[in-house]
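Below is the record:
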Amino acid sequence: MSGVDVAIVGVGLFPFGRYPGTQCLEMGAQAARDALADAGAEWKDVQSAFVGSHEVSNPDSIVGLLGLTGIPVRAVFNGCATGGTSLQMAAKAIQYGEADLAMAIGMDKHPRGAFSGDPSILGLPAWYGQTGMFLTTHFFGMKINRYMQQHGISRETLAKVASKNFANGARNPQAWRRTPMTPEAILDSEIVNYPLTRYMYCGPDEGAAALVLARADQAHRYTSTPVFVRAAELRSRRPGAFEVQSPSLPLESAPSPSVDASKAAYEVAGIGPDDVNVAQLQDTDAGSEVIHMAENGFCADGEQEKWIAEGATELTGRLPVNTDGGLIANGEPIGASGLRQIREIVLQLQGRAGDRQIAGDPRVGYTHLYGAPGASAVTILSR
């Protein structure tokens, strides 16, 4: 990133799950307070903030719970890439001189039944979801089915990816799903959209996450272990990309926006995939994590089969992926999900990840988001 260097000096989380008695704004405010406490700062110190949500039309109204200080607070929504976008905008606010201390906050409270076709959601009858016709599940099923046929990926590999994420979630006291599952049990669960079964998908839920960012030359005021934002890039799709609104077009006709975003991030950060020690990849389903391993440059198409068999993406592997359980174990409140990813990387780089802490003194972390109908955000962090 050009200009002033930016550091993350505080992280906060309202654990993802289901909270019938808690308002979305309350969750966001609590995550923000936790991030501020982590940084040893107060809301009155913050000079700019970016707040992302899908369900809350005016998330900037969070100031009613945090304090009416009059600072610029902007609402953000960019599909599943919202969290990465919020961080990027907060970093830019610091680089462009609007703030020395800024925040990125994300929150959402999604209704149940997104995969069942509940009549209260989009007005669809129950059979629509039960027969596997819900748009998002149908798209991801089609996408990985085609990819498997082209590159020799097995259903067993998809099950191992999901099992790995459930196992990581079991080590994470703040994960939503904390019950380990074997690959066999995942394969034996009901099929939602072939080849994906029930436990190969993430679920929509509720929660919030927040980050405090500072000028790097002032980071010592807040923490002795700042984590620096080396790149924060966003790209949208180009004609021919294999996306929700154009699933019949050839996959090879244009790269995914994830490919474009990752290449841009590596160039800005001045590193390559081999330099990354730990990664968070969008795992809306197990197939997405497999595809995103290649799209982000960590392996070639088809090499995932060998990587997963060798345990390369496990906590003890050469590139641990989704160390907190990812979306599969945590669910996806859209506005908060990307900031949860970044929080996890910060904890890993600071050695604060507890039972899921990876070995080897990690120094470079990577986060990736992919949102329909085709936007991808990539962030590279380092100590």
Q: What stands out?
A: The two ends are 15 Å apart (CA to CA). The first strand starts at residue 6 and ends at 17. The chain has twelve helices and eleven strands.
